[in-house]
Amino acid sequence: RFHGYFSHNTFAARSSSVNAARTTVSPATDQYDVPSRAGGGDAQWVRRGARHELTVGIDGQWVRGETNEDSRFVDGAFTRRRHTGGEQVLGGLWVQDIVQLAPRWRLLGAARLDSWHSRDGFRQEEDLARGIALEPVAFEAHSVTVGSPSLGVVFRPGSAWTLRASAYAGFRAPTINELYRPVRVAGDNITEANPSLEPERVRGAELGVVLSPGRAFHAETTFFWTELERAVFSVTIGRADGGPATIPPCGFLPAGGSCRQRQNVGVLRSLGVELTLQSRVTSWLSAHGELMLLDSEVTSAPQFPQLVGKQGRMAPEAMAGVGARLTGPKGLSFAVDARWVGPRYDDDLNVLRIGSLVTLNAALERDLRTGLTLFLSGENLLDRENPIGRNGALEEIGVPFLVRLGARWRLGSK
Prior knowledge:
With 414 residues, the chain is an all-beta fold. The chain is 1% helix and 70% strand. The longest helix is centred in the middle third of the chain and has 5 residues.
């Protein structure tokens, strides 16, 4: 099997700054051109035998992106222009074998070799007020090659029960955004990129129990433990609490603003359990439910000791959801689901606490014989002001009550 792709995208974004009294709004940044290009593909070969299913694969990806923006709005005009960007190339080889050891035992072993190259990183700034270009900066190239093994076993003691266990290691390269693109969110908080970021490495283990006595009921419980080394955090460097200030590497900050930069902080440990239930109540009614409990904590941060013991950003201690689906005659179906997400933090220091959120969604569909499907869906039916982010005293809320009416058309018989 072969798969390939290429994409070219661009967008523009503007941000604003609000004064302390919340009486005036001023332009903060104008990212007038943010283009990116990417291409890649993969190839996979599979051979199935009486006891083995062997898979060998290769994949690769190339990404290039840049940001062109104006900033430092003074006396009615932007006074600084910045061009920054770079590219990265990723490639990997992997092999996997699924072995039927015995009628009730199955073994899965896999190994992957990844290579990551970050190159051609640059930053060029212009002082628009004086009409001069500042000294350009060329960032150092990075190359890393890592191996990632995994091993799993599945045991079926009976027709209704399945036990499984696995251990694994993984790899994630920092993105172009994390390496080169600065971000300014609502208000006066700036998150600087970091071209010196190293890839994250993860190791973990899982233990699962599956109960499936028949097509009418399915339950699955998974216990998991992971340790993320060199975890990429947006680390708080400083705050302009006493008034406007210049804080490297962010530069000038209005009063109340904060400066953050993406950094490899150390080790983030996650421990938790997931529970999933599915039931076919009748031929026309099915229901499902999910629950996750999570303990996420920074356990080591040699360069940032203030983060040790802090909860991972945007990692709630609990999440839950329930839903049901009714299938009627003549292609009619109706689905409803509710989701709850517990409190979490929007910063590395666990100061900006976000409250819990609840959403209720529903969808009505009608399949027509011509391959056309009509649907009517509603999101956040309770129209709650659900908190999804916090920026100092400002709280970002999610989508209000939203209705969609649409159609899908399927060509062919499959």
